[in-house]
Amino acid sequence: MILADQQAMRLLEELTNCFGPSGFEKEPARIMKNYVSKFADEVYTDKLGSLMFTKKGTSSSPVVLLPGHIDEVGFIISSVNKLGFLTFNPLGGWFDQVLLGQRVIIKTENGMVPGVIAAKPPHLLPASEREKVVSKEKMFIDIGASNEDEAKAMGARIGNPVIPDSHFSTMQKRIFKDGKRKGRDTIAIGKAFDDRIGAWTAAEVVRALVEKKISHPNMVIGAATTQEEVGLRGARTTAFVTKPDVCLTLEVDIAGDVPGIEPNEAPTKMGHGPSLTTYDSSMIPNQALVDLVIKTADRAKIPYQLSQIARGGTDAGVIHIANAGCPSVVIGVPTRHIHSHVGLFSMTDAENCVKLIIEVVKKLDKKTVAGFTEI
Fold this sequence. Notes:
Largest sheet: 11 strands, mixed
CATH class of the largest domain: Alpha Beta
Shape: globular
CATH superfamily of the largest domain: Zn peptidases
Distance between the termini: 43 Å
CATH architecture of the largest domain: 3-Layer(aba) Sandwich
Number of domains: 2
Helix content: 25-40%
CATH topology of the largest domain: Aminopeptidase
Number of helices: 10
Radius of gyration: 21 Å
Structural class: alpha+beta
Number of strands: 17
């Protein structure tokens, strides 16, 4: 691997393993702060917990914002019943079918408590019920308690945050195309890639600008934003604080190279390069900026994929209409099985995403950015 050295891989593992559902992001924010403080010009926060870190180039303007959100999808405890089982509400979007039988971790005043998501056993359901998908409302978390007192003694209470119990790992694979071997790749496996990979990318871009002494005609602000999964909330305050002139939102993309998905539903594939989103339900990107990204990738011979997301959005959805407006695009890493306990993505895609952002940042001078909104 070229960019993702041991230091970068340690950050990625630490970020994805840590505890940080929407509204409870202090741990990933502290990890990011400790990492970027070694090379950023300035590190600061807003009052919603988002972290910003800057790198001044040959000019203090335009301001180029690189946001990636650090909250992960999780749950919050809604009750502790008399039998000692915990009900929950989702923090972010969850597909009911990925939940049953999965391990979780509940953060309590007594520490981390393991549990498992369960429901009434299918053996006790009538045939008509066994054929139906069990909804979240009929599920509960079992922490091994036998009554309410035992559960509360373990620290369980309404308002406890919950995350998937899943740990980061990697595996190596040989790449084949048209029956011929084309090298190797590293596949990352774990939770919270949506969107700790975006925050990781922002950190690695700023780090590369500093350590490689890359000249850029602007002020770059990396951002680890909060509460994206529950309404793009940290992005609003981040945009207010930073007042960006242009925004390159860093995200995952839904990799469509799994059975049952048509190319028009999710066109990107894992291992074929970072994605450039041409449309989603929260934002139509600035077309001049889209063209710049495409031309930059072509000239630098960085592989990329064009994407669309008919349902869903990103932090760019609110950043592009912040203040007087902000030309924005979304650049992502195609990831399989997002919003579940375990996702997969290609480290080569992640490395190429960092390379592409750096190349684009180098071109964002005052004249170019002003041209994005010329009529």
